[in-house]
Amino acid sequence: MRITEKGEPSHNYSIMKSVLIPHDPLDGREKLVLSNYAAEGVGRILIIDAETLEGECYELPDDSGAWALLWLPERGELLVGTCDHYGSLHCFQMEQRRFLRPLRIETETYLWNFALGGDGCVYAGTYPGCVLVKYDPEKRTLVSLGKVGDVDKNQYSRPIFATSAGDIAISAGFYKNQAWLYRINTGRFLKLGKDGDSVRGVGDDFICLANGDFLT
After folding, report:
1. Which of 26, 87, 156, 167 has the fewest CB atoms inside 10 Å of its own CB, making it the most exposed?
2. DSSP structural state of residue 41
3. DSSP state for residue 9 in the 8-state scheme
4. 135-172: per-residue pLDDT in tens?
5. Distances (CA, A) of 74 to 24, 25, 28, 143, 165
């Protein structure tokens, strides 16, 4: 048996998030989009044809990777939320295959995940400020809605979920776990459950919280 050395495998490349695009505006084909992370490197998004498995690769304009992806089909835009230096929100126009100018909140270095609110705006949790941010796709603005919760030492607002009513359920931690609901119609935060609770998911008419090993 003959052994031929081909090179070293990648030791600094991990897939963070995926999203399915049923109809790519460029060619109408189904695409799977992946985001990766490379420590102290440059993150990328990978666009893979679901049938042919052929792929495209686009470097993020900044940052090491991306935890957050969201497809906005009516706009033909893919939103990318990055980590772990800039916490940028990138808008990638699929038909043109180009990034628009990134937006960011200067104090934050991570955008963890996206949730589409009932007002048509996109929300994300952050690190290290434990804030909720709001992106308006029409105005192309990103603003901070303030720290989630009443615990100064909490640094993480993750994960977040959009409820059936269009509000945003948020877990805050990790110094002290709390669950909060951002009411879009009032712009106020409402505490859910008790200290130690976190949001595990949402349904048509419920929000599921967990505290230790027990669901509440």
Report:
1. 26
2. S
3. P
4. 999 999 999 999 999 999 999 999 999 999 999 999 99
5. 12, 10, 14, 22, 21
